[in-house]
Amino acid sequence: xxxxxxxxxxxxxxxxxxxxxxxxxxxxxxxxxxxxxxxxxxxxxxxxxxxxxxxxxxxxxxxxxxxxxxxxxxxxxxxxxxxxxxxxxxxxxxxxxxxxxxxxxxxxxxxxxxxxxxxxxxxxxxxxxxxxxxxxxxxxxxxxxxxxxxxx
Length: 152
Known about the structure:
Elements: H1 3-18, H2 21-44, H3 46-55, H4 61-81, H5 85-103, H6 113-143
Helix pairs in contact: 2-3, 2-4, 3-4, 4-5, 5-6
């Protein structure tokens, strides 16, 4: 079996499963999971959320904590509902990049386990930025030309 025929065979088998709208929703939910879990944790431990903002030098900390909670939950909801999905995905990509540059400055740490863990976290977050960019790209490609706000 040639690579071309193998690809054609596998595409025929997997396309019906992977193009199902439920798979899209589950995948988007997985992508947004940290942006749902994080704010919920902040809501249930608001003093901890304030301490986190203060740790990263964000003042006034309570205002930043509320802003992050509202932003992450609302952008996740837009993505999952398909309402301006591309814009919400870009917003979370930019937010993630900024938060990563603030929180995971591995290059400032001495060599060792802490630096290695921060570097891993940094590049995992860069992967999330790329994933959100792909969501925006796909949404604009599929629905953007119509000018519709709702994309699902």
